[in-house]
Amino acid sequence: MNVLKIATAGSVDDGKSTLIGRLLYDTKSLTDDKLEAIEEKSKQRGFDYLDFSLATDGLVAEREQGITIDVAHIYFSTPSKSFIIADTPGHIEYTRNMVTGASTAQASIVLIDARNGVVEQTYRHFFINNLLRIKNVVIAINKMDLVNFSQEKFNNIKGEIEFLASKSEYKNQNLTFIPLSALEGDNVVSSSDKTPWYTGKTLLDHLEGLETEDINEESQARFPVQSVIRPKTEEYHDFRGYAGKIYGGNFEVGDKIRVLPSQTTSTIKSIHFFNETYVEAKRGSAVTMTLADNVNVSRGDMLVKVNEEPTITKQLDATICWMDSAPLEVSQKYYIKHGVNDAQAKITQLSSIIKTDFSGKINNPSKLELNQIGDVQLKLSKPLLVDSFNQNKSNGAFILINPKTNNTVGVGFIRQ
């Protein structure tokens, strides 16, 4: 069955956890004991309705404060598709959690309270979706029941988001606007007769219709080698395969490939998955390949098609989301982890801090604080095989690690 990975985002009290709980309830994805616990807790709180947010707020602090802090992954299915929802926090101090939760998403839901409209956090959530190049974004305008299902309210919010989209550098995004009430279930799973002016799909119908493709849009194929397979059995005495996952494009038997960084060339002889062989392997596939020639290939090398080589460089221009309480400053040294490769990295320049409300940049800052996003330049101890994040999400992203604490302190998106 197809699996769609979805990230959610919304400001405090926009109803994000309630929306996810409603999806679970209406698709009959809640277990009996979970449903009984929700019913009991709702009564204890004096509610005359089911508090669906209790289905997702797992931490004690979340339940006590009625907010989302950590990234929770929720699973549910319909007859046609399975879903994994990354329920990310809305608070500004948890921006780093949203970035990590949305990093593997194929679609995103941004909630907006119809009463409040577009607020500061909405800018930030929309900016991060653009930064991560999430193609399919649903703008779920929630709590329409509290504004009498006003079409005017809906259109005003829609216009503000469309104006933000016009200022974004990412132009290949599909925006879908849905008026709904998570609490009452309007336009979540079933169409509502309270919005006769809305002729689009319900939220669930729309999600079921989305393509469950790999997060990379069509681009040049990349195959980072994770391990070399040498069974050394009588049957496979001479077998030498290279295992990894394909990113960006497809590989076929007979493709002429180049091994990087050695620059040697060969041809794909066979493609294996467990005990099956294939003529073609599509992006997102984890496979083992063999080559026609006995060339030297090791873990950390990359197989690419001839004339589709990535950039080999020791200098990186990147956009960084900073995730550590100790700020990033120029001349600091870190470990960079890029796919299966790593190297030492030094920050040579902090060019700017990017304002997440699309209003511009702060040039030449002295440091980058926790949850801020900025443009930096890095110098590496050895060359890496990279693409820009726009060209290939997987090969265009990396993390920075503090060598003293081993903490992940930043996530980066390559610009060149």
Verbal overview:
The chain has 416 residues and is α+β, with helices and mostly antiparallel strands. The chain folds into three domains: 3-208, Rossmann fold (3-Layer(aba) Sandwich); 223-305, Translation factors (Elongation Factor Tu (Ef-tu), domain 3, Beta Barrel), CATH 2.40.30; 311-414, Beta Barrel (Elongation Factor Tu (Ef-tu), domain 3). 18% of the residues lie in helices and 35% in strands. The strands form four sheets. Strands 2-3-1-4-5-6 form a six-stranded mixed β-sheet, with helices on both faces. A six-stranded antiparallel β-barrel has the order 7-8-14-11-10-15. A six-stranded antiparallel β-barrel has the order 16-20-18-17-21-22. β10 (256-260) and β11 form a beta hairpin. It starts with a strand and ends with a strand.
Query: First CA to last CA: what distance?
Result: 37 Å
The fourth-level CATH homologous superfamily of the largest domain is: P-loop containing nucleotide triphosphate hydrolases
Q: What structural category do the secondary elements indicate?
A: alpha+beta
Q: Work out the strand percent.
A: 25-35%
Q: Count helical runs.
A: 7
In summary, what is this structure?
This protein is an alpha+beta fold. It is 18% helix and 35% strand.
What characteristics describe this protein?
single chain, 22 strands, 7 helices, Elongation Factor Tu (Ef-tu), domain 3, six-stranded mixed beta sheet, 3 domains, Rossmann fold, 416 residues
